[in-house]
Amino acid sequence: MEKGLFRVSPMFSDHMVLQRDKPVVIWGEAPEDAAVTVMIDNTHMETTAKNGTWKVRLAPMPAGGPYRMTVSCGEQSVMFQDVMIGEVWFAGGQSNMELELQNCDNAQEELKHANYQGIRFYNVVKTGKLTDEVMKQQLRSQWRICQSDAVRDVSAVAYFAARKLHQELGVAIGVIDCYIGGTSATCWMDRDTLMSTPETRGYVEAYDASIAGKTQEQYEAELAQFQRAWEERDAATQREKQKNPDISAEELNACLGPAPWPPPAGPTSEYRPGNPYQAMMERVIPYTVKGFWYYQGEEDTYKAESYGVLMKCLIELWRRKWEDESAPFIIHQLPMFIESGAVDDRCWAVLREQQMLTARQMPNTYLTVLIDCGELDNIHPTDKQTVGWRLALQCLGHVYGLAQHVDSPSVQTVRREGQTVIVAFDCEQLSVRGEKITLFELAGEDGQYHPADAGIHSPNEVAVVCQEVPLPVAVRYAWTNYGIVTLYGNNELPVAPFRVTL
């Protein structure tokens, strides 16, 4: 056999985690009709290469390790050391999933204690195009053991979720980090899916129209100019923060001007619909995973009403490509956010509703409510400990059946008693953090909402009243881009935002 033609996918390396209790897919390249054998522990499988590629499915294995896995083809073989079998999750989305452990709250203390042999990460190279340099970077990518000096740049959300799962499940946890800040949900779908509905097709057509006639050379020149402007703005920001560590984003914009955004559009941009899917996700698929963690939506608030269609298409595509129609999918609902001085157009509230409806309508799809985790004037809140803990709680309750009452209280019934609306929630008891309940509004037949007073009516009920609305016909809660949340359930989770017509 000619050497150099046999290869195992770069997704596999020393220290990797393979999914327990499911058939595990291993794949790579080999000469036509060559026999390939995969062996790990007491499990082995043989296959024959076709069209230059091969793929095997190992029989389900229980959690355990460390093991050695050997893949052989004729006289050639590749051995992987320190292979664990446990739970593998795919972490996708944009910048709030991307926010690195080294940049979260209490980062240095967290990193000092981030040493877990049973937690492993694989970071997919961020790109919109498979250039030779990117492919070289991909070949150098490796699974990493969770150690302080090795996980500074992993997703903080994924780290805190993985840590909790590792502690509770007692098995190895593997996380595949695959995200890019500023990306639309359309970036994480293939072109065929994007062209399959009027809503998703519109994103593709709009982007393609924006780059019509633009050459790759023009795009690269614009991109270089943008990167220089970004680096200059970042350097200036660091200088201002040294003078005033508490300076706000609004103050920075006032003295430096707004940060350059968005990046220029181009044919190979990582923000072009479909590009990251083709350049990043197709490299990961079909690495066997338990399910998906998804934190995204900020980039799609300008078309919030369409977001449910995007999510339905994305979830169905991912499950189909991974050949697991029941794979758990956990959505992170957007927290509160608004820029100082901006008009509250409530588009974030609409998108949160779309995320909630997606979780309710699609099987094995769950929602992590983060309505109390936002920051004024900061689209990247740094408390990722809370986010990761709530994500793990969703997994422990809905996926592993090891926890109860893991969901935020949601509306159960709504009734009117005179001028008062009584809202009952699906929890045992409500509590108020602060002086009063905030963010309730009522509307009459004219459809105009007014801020309302609210108070605890019974352990799981809130009474809502507004003098400007003597005959309320609709009630909503936390229907705003940004506000202060004070209402919680007895499970310590915030009441989920909603709007209901009586």
List the keywords:
502 residues, alpha+beta, eleven-stranded mixed β-sheet, four-stranded antiparallel β-sheet, 12 helices, 28% helix, 26% strand
List the topology elements.
Blueprint: E1 7-8, E2 17-19, E3 24-29, E4 35-40, E5 43-48, E6 53-58, E7 64-73, E8 76-93, H1 95-98, H2 107-112, E9 116-123, H3 132-140, E10 144-146, H4 156-169, E11 173-179, H5 191-194, H6 198-210, H7 216-243, H8 249-256, H9 275-284, E12 291-295, H10 307-321, E13 329-332, H11 347-361, E14 365-368, H12 384-399, E15 411-417, E16 420-425, E17 430-432, E18 440-443, E19 449-451, E20 453-458, E21 461-465, E22 474-477, E23 487-489, E24 498-501
Parallel strand pairs: 2-8, 8-11, 8-12, 9-11, 12-13, 13-14
Antiparallel strand pairs: 1-3, 3-6, 4-5, 4-7, 7-8, 9-10, 15-16, 16-21, 17-23, 18-19, 18-22, 20-21, 22-24
Helix pairs in contact: 4-12, 10-11
